[in-house]
Write the structure tokens for this entry.
Amino acid sequence: MKQIFLLPLLAVMGTAPAHAQLTLEQAISPKKAEQYVRSIQRSELDAYVLKNGAPYLYEDGRTSNVGLTAVTSHTEYAWRLDEHDVLYSYVKAFRSDTTPPPACSVDAPPDKALRDSECVKSIVNFAECHLFVFDSNSKLVAVQPLKIPQPDYIVAKPSCFDVHAMAPAKAVKHGMLIVASYYDSRWTCMAGQDCASNGLLAFPDPLYKTTFLVRFNKDASGKLLLSQDTSCLEPLNNYSTIAAARRALEKKGCN
């Protein structure tokens, strides 16, 4: 699956100057940024996943781990924050909860109800993409889950599949746009692999796309804070390109 990437600019608001923003660090190539991120000790990342991940316990006592996977596409880039600090981005996916989808409820309508085996598969296969941000000292400084609410056109849980583009929001000076794809978690696939249904029901194209808006802020102590803005950009927006998401932000007058 060939991907075309737009490199993002990140921006900071809050206690930072009104026009402060994060720009692409020209002196550090994407390849060097990738090498830097991959050289970072996994201890902090693993600690975050251990704390926020959700293993699944089968009825027979077996346990499925959180399924930590890197998206196929390149997401490691270097940014300069307000012309001072250098930050690095990285996106990984893992199972963040084991809540069954509405289709597993006893009150689910017959045409959308899942069998017990399908409910288990939808939970085990579920993965949520997370944006990880590291500083130039190899320290994990912020993490933002990229949350997708339950769509009415997907029976099981919506599972993050891949990241296709990252770019500055432009209209939102301290915002980052991330184009991602997701799928019905009943399908047996992991992030970055081809999805295929092993049941009777199958979508002709099981991948859906959406664009996330992540805002960058700092608290009073200067700590970096990330937040997913769902008011300026609804998470089920179907925007498959950066350009479409930018037009939507401009139309809404978001800044």
The first strand starts at residue 13 and ends at 14. Residues 1-19, 189-204 have pLDDT under 50 and may be disordered.
